Amino acid sequence: MRKQSTTENVDFFDKSSSAKRSVGLLVEGYPVEGLSIGGQETCVIFPSLRMAFDIGRCPQRAISQHYLFISHGHLDHIGGLPMYVATRGLYGMNPPTIFVPVSIKESVERLFNVHREMDRSELKHKLIGMNVGDEFQIRKDLKVKAFRTYHVIPSLGYIIYSVKQKLKQEYATLSGNEIKELRFSGVEVTHTMTSPEIAFTGDTTSDFIVDPDNTDVLKARILVMESTFVDNAMSIEHAREYGHTHLSEISSHADKFQNKALLLIHFSARYTSKEVESAIANMPATLADRTYALLEGL
Ligand SMILES: [Zn+2]
Ligand SMILES: [Zn+2]
């Protein structure tokens, strides 16, 4: 059954189902919150990492996240940015760190200047422009790397890596004191291990899947990817024309995803959550078993 409008969607008024959804998802040990509806608003939140990917219209839960990664300049992904910064300032929180494609960095700076003129507040934040392949150390144990995505305007995806210091194999049998002595004598006893934890695509055609530079995206523990269209009423060609991905393309690339979990987002508002769930259930079993959907608000 096709959803005509929000008011006709009975689920919208069903308190028990909205209460259930507000609990959010748990994907590979990470709580995930936020919402993502194509053309309306996208903000995907990993509260345990203090991170939000895109800001949508700035849902309340996004405000407490320290790091924000913006994929591109469409308003359903960036519209709430000034509110995010202003509200953090109002609550006396630390200025956030915001990553944007370098191609829109100057526009974002101008946007904040216009708001400063109107609002007479500082709108403090740290803005970092990213290019494909750029890396940035977020914390001692986390870094981000930007990857190429394929949308109708300049866009970027982001991979979050965990960074750990591991004891080198040759010292594995030594005691704690022996290792300490070695370290004091200037020997490098550890090496750095990085592993891709979360990849976020923002809006893109499925071309990012076959980009040879994007192998880590397909290895990330969790791949958050858009799947705007899920049924035969909308063709792959239509999805591609608007810079989006069709669920059937994800299915046809099933063998490429080494991810522990896929989290699908950005479904068109034409679908109900039941329609999305049944489309996912019909994916190849190797994918359906590890695919989650962010259905909040559908
Ligand atoms: Zn979008
Ligand atoms: Zn877009």
- The H/E string reads HEEEEEHHEHEEEEHEHEHHEHHE
Specify the number of helices: 10
Biggest β-sheet strands, sense, barrel: 7 strands, mixed
Helix proportion: 25-40%
The parts where pLDDT drops under 50 for at least 5 residues are 1-22
What is the count of β-strands?
14
Bound molecules: zinc ion
Query: Roughly what fraction of the amino acids lie in strands?
Result: 25-35%
Q: Provide the structure class.
A: alpha/beta
The radius of gyration computed from the alpha-carbon positions, rounded to a whole number of angstroms, is 21 Å
Strand order of the largest sheet: 1-2-3-4-5-6-7
- State the shape: globular
Distance between the termini: 13 Å
User: What's the mean pLDDT score?
Assistant: 92
Describe the overall structure.
This protein is α/β, with parallel strands linked by helices. Helices cover 25% and strands 27% of the residues. The chain has ten helices and 14 strands. Strands 1-2-3-4-5-6-7 form a seven-stranded mixed sheet. It has a seven-stranded mixed sheet with strand order 8-9-10-11-12-13-14, with helices on one face. The protein is globular. The chain binds zinc ion (2 copies). One zinc ion binds next to α2. This is Nuclear ribonuclease Z. Residues 66-267 form the Metallo-beta-lactamase domain.
Features:
single chain; 298 residues; alpha/beta; seven-stranded mixed β-sheet; 10 helices; disordered N terminus; binds zinc ion; Nuclear ribonuclease Z; RibonucZ/Hydroxyglut_hydro
Short précis:
Helix content is 25%, strand content 27%.
